[in-house]
Amino acid sequence: MIRKVLVSTKPLVAIAILGLASAAMAAELSEEELLAGADARIEKHRKADATVAVVDASGKPVPGATIQVEQTAHAFLFGSNIFAWGSVADPQAQAAYRERFAELLNYATLPFYWPSYEPRRGEPAHARTEEVARWCKEHGIATKGHPLAWNMADPRWLPDELEEIRGLQMARIEDCVSHFAGLIDRWDVVNEATHFDREEFVRLRAPKHSAMWQKVGQMEFTRECFTHARKAGPQATLLINDYRTDPAYERVIEQLVDAGGKPMYDVIGIQSHMHGGAWPTRNIWEVCERFARFGAPLHFTETTILSGDRTWEKPRGAEWPSTPEGEAYQAEHVVRFYTMLFSHPAVE
Predict the structure, then answer these.
(1) Are 233 and 185 in contact (CB under 8 A)?
(2) Which residues contact 171 (CB under 8 A, 6 or more apart)?
(3) How far apart are CA 142 and CA 299, in angstroms?
(4) Cα–Cα distance, 84 to 66 (Å, whole number)
(5) DSSP-based three-state secondary structure for 317
(6) Domain 74-342 has CATH 3.20.20.80
(7) Distance between CA atoms of 216 and 207, rounded to whole angstroms?
(8) Each residue of 75-105: pLDDT tens digit?
């Protein structure tokens, strides 16, 4: 007997307009109407028909066969950072962390922050990272390295000569991408290029790296990083990643092309830290629509929806207690946020 069943499919890369006749019609919908249309979009963009033929050992159809289909994997990447892997002192807590991660998630971001990843020149933390990446692979969890280039802080050993720093940065990119080929094949190549010259980084946290980036130029440096990442990983998936969702990020993406005008990135990464409050439903959809126009898959790479005080003003290291009311707010908006993303065909 031949039966049809529904299975998940890889997301399409396209600009979606809610299945409506025009974007203008979408703009007229209320927040709740936008959310209500998500189920229909999910049916359209995340499912497809599959034909299952049940046959016996000789290849003949089995009349009246009853089959049961269980989904064991999903094309949609649903993940988290895996920074706590191996760093929880309590063995039971560490075991629970790994068990829950593997049970709930199929995508993991591994840390490659230069100052902590290579605390001494020439001694990158490849061994520990390999252990985490291999565990992910054994559990069917896709991996991504984050970030290869970001002037968040200077390694303490960084030299003063700017051209030497430039060479070290490009060598680091090639080393990481080539070393982990087959274990980590997705990379946030450049992080937050829109605001590389922020005063806090330039004056206090990364004066040397920032000075080099400024000397080379915002986009010249960004393109150079992608050139070296592609050289080291011809088949790797390369992301540009940023916290801004305004035209400044769109301009970076527009300029991140090679001499022939071909995009140097494979995926557009969008941060969604909502310390000041959850994004309205319309904002979520509007961000997806604007960045889908570039024709590349979208990854929402960093998401924060708080269960405590909603503010950007907490000092680093301050307590941030969760509250029952905050957890209810968080639960509601997490469901809303991921439902909208899952219903947009450009989100991967």
Answers:
(1) yes
(2) none
(3) 13
(4) 44
(5) coil
(6) yes
(7) 14
(8) 999 999 999 999 999 999 999 999 999 999 9
